[in-house]
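Batch manifest, entry 17 of 40.
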Amino acid sequence: PSNGDKVVIHSGRTMFIPSDVNNLELLKIDVNGVLDVNSSHGHNFNIISGNGTIRMQGYDPGSGYVDNFPDGINTRFIDNLVGGSVEIYGTGITLNQDRTFNNLKINLTSGSAILLADYYLNGNLTIQNGDFKINNAVNTTPLTITVNKDVLVESTGTITTGDVNAVDNTAANG
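Output type: structure tokens
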């Protein structure tokens, strides 16, 4: 796609953005198939909708792979009834941006997806392959992860936590 385009990815179709194509400015994207943003970065899609899958492996600014989900209003894409899914793949990523998604799948070939931000999932969390690590050994800021439906950890997936002492005194007792 080119800057200023309106893009529709139909069911059964995949659009791959090469890692050297960065900073796309779309008017709108409707993902009903698969959009693979690869390790590209800096995109603003203005309006993101659809019930397909957006795949990302992160962008490496020189210190390791970090979140590269495109900017844009994604209210319809994250909706629990008509929204889509996000798949994180590759060899490890730091999830350093607060996010709301519908469904999230971790599908790494190695390494960990390290959560250092708050995540709110309207749908399911699936750890298909690799490690989903909540916090690390350095960050002392308490994190919140909310999953409104199911958490599935497959036989080749794990959930681990960092071993730093982070206390959230705002939690309600119950």
